Amino acid sequence: MPLQLVKELSSKERQHLSCLFCHTNEDNELLYGKFYFNDSIAAHYYCLLFSSGLEQKGRDEDGILGFLNNDIEKEVLRGRKLSCVSCKASGATVGCCNKSCKKTYHFICGVESQMLNQYFGAFNSYCPKHQPYQIIVMDTYNLKTAKESNATATCTICHEEVPAYPTFDVLWAPCCKKQSWFHRICMQKLALSAGYFFKCPICSNNTQFCCEMKRFGIYIPEQDASWELEPNAFQELVQRHNICDHPNCICPKGRSHDGDGTRWELLLCSSCGSRGIHIGCGRLDWSTMEWDCEDCNLKSHNRNSPKVGSSAITPLINPVNITSRSFKRPHPLDNVRNSNSSSSSSVNSTNSSISSDSDSDVDVESLDDTESPFSSSLSQSSGGAPASRNVARRGRGSFSCSRPTRSKRHTCNFDNLSFKVVNNDTQIIVFVEKEEGVKTSFTIPVEQPLVRSRK
Predict the structure, then answer these.
(1) What is the pTM of this model?
(2) Domains of the chain, with CATH numbers?
(3) How far is residue 25 CA from its own chain's centroid?
């Protein structure tokens, strides 16, 4: 029979169930832990944890969270020989870990008697006589004076009055070293809710605060916070803006269309992400692939932009010289290919075209400046902005080019290469960084205009 919670059973089944250790049917997770039922055995989780002679020999999915049924029955038989100090009934399996102390309790009776239980390590229990007490270290604080004057403070969790001196029901946060007092019950509720995110409510300290709370009987479950376990708790954060907000959207498929790798690709604001625009609608340059909406542009650059209307968006377009623009590098080759072709071979450029972005990487034939007859034209084009609009082909795809027959075919190192298509797709300028800060560039003519195709 699979493990079940008693509260999930029918009312008729719950009437006849009671914990084998404390002999009650109390279902209070805050004080006694979850109430489990498995193969006619019902027990509180904390009763299992603090029974002195019970070991967790199984896996988490065996028995009741690793406590095997045979071991549970043996511990119940051992407890029948022991009497509870509080209620005088038999079956007391929780004992004080002080070797000189012979007191034993039912777990529920121990909670009522203010027995301190530590939920880590060996899961020790201390009777009221032998349990540790907090040492208060604060400037201008006197424990004796605080008790005599019945000093009070405000619990940061429930915002109610709490004694300003340590007792069993009052805890102090040592990480703050000031008047940081809490009710024990409030701290336990916070720990059960926060789980892994349990920390000081005042200063958000995690390490020192958690160690102190564990030492003085606060159970911190190893689980996510309760607000993260709720279904669809953060569903609104997954939603992404998917509409072109340009006042005059010219996309033929509508504002919500997002054509990846085309001029109808939808770009979101790089600062806020709450507005979007098509590359074609905003006449954006493909070299940067970044865009800031009007509001973020004004905030970040402290400059005024003309507004068409209250909801108008002015694209951020910076005409930058080709030599000073930071180019977007192509994707690196998955497998570096070395081709040793003869110097007399040539490339048939009429049968090649730009392939799909997802199909292949860019294969470029590099030319040295001494070999390329177009090096002179490069120096002219790099000295100033080209006459035609510069459109940067993005990193993936392939193209062919004509070159002198005596040059050799090489595979480009994409870590040091960037390229640009200029002059109405008739020339390709390739930039190679041979050393840090030293770049070499050359121009490759394209016999057939580049055509971008998508599958």
Answers:
(1) 0.53
(2) 4-126 (3.30.40.10), 143-229 (3.30.40), 237-318 (3.30.40.10), 349-445 (no CATH)
(3) 41
